[in-house]
Specification:
By secondary structure, the protein is of the alpha/beta class. It is built from eight helices and seven strands. The protein is 52% helix and 15% strand. The model has no long low-confidence stretch (mean pLDDT 88).
């Protein structure tokens, strides 16, 4: 079987992880770039670099205060670019290693599609109404809607996806939408 690497992208809280969970339940391989970035964020050289970039108050007990870091960097686009550059190259290298070790189709959750150049077979954008995103992320992360809105305004959506997954209904409806996308991509009978 030819290797396919399909990006699952979309705004924070749009449902990328839910789509990936459905795909895993159906036997598809997935990887989460946020999980890779979290692993990288625990490496001492990265923690030190972020401490230098933002200040020592963003590092507690040798670990990043991710909530405080997120609030700070998403409020300043120049700072966000510097912060993201600390991670993106290492995430790309690790993703390439995972792809090299994977046969068949691999779905990659990647919130920032233009973080680095990658030869995607397809790009699937997960969409959800803005008010639902604000509600979901505020409840999930314990932050206010203004913080979520700041994150959303800093994210750049993929303008030309191969397929769009609308996540504006029930879980059963989302499963039907994912099933239809898989069939359309020739990945499900």
């Amino acid at each position: 079987m030819k290797r396919k690497v399909i990006a699952l992208t979309g705004y924070i809280g749009s449902g990328k992880s839910c789509v990936a969970r459905i795909l895993r339940q159906w036997g598809y391989k997935t990887v989460d770039c946020d999980a890779i970035a979290r692993q990288i964020a625990n490496e001492p050289h990265v923690i030190a670099a972020i401490g230098e970039l933002l200040g020592g108050e963003y590092v507690r007990d040798g670990r990043l205060d991710r909530s405080a870091v997120r609030q700070r960097v998403f409020a300043d686009s120049e700072l966000l670019d510097k912060y993201q550059s600390l991670f993106f190259d290492e995430v790309r290298v690790r993703l390439q290693q995972i792809v090299a070790e994977t046969d068949g189709t691999l779905f990659v959750e990647i919130p920032v599609l233009d973080a680095f150049r990658f030869d995607w077979s397809e790009v699937w954008r997960v969409e959800c109404p803005r008010d639902e995103i604000l509600r979901r992320v505020a409840a999930r992360d314990g932050v206010n809607a203004e913080s979520v809105a700041a994150t959303l305004s800093a994210q750049k959506p993929c303008s030309t996806p191969t397929r769009t997954i609308n996540n504006n209904g029930t879980l059963a409806e989302l499963e039907q939408t994912v099933d239809a996308a898989l069939r359309s991509a020739g990945l499900r009978d």
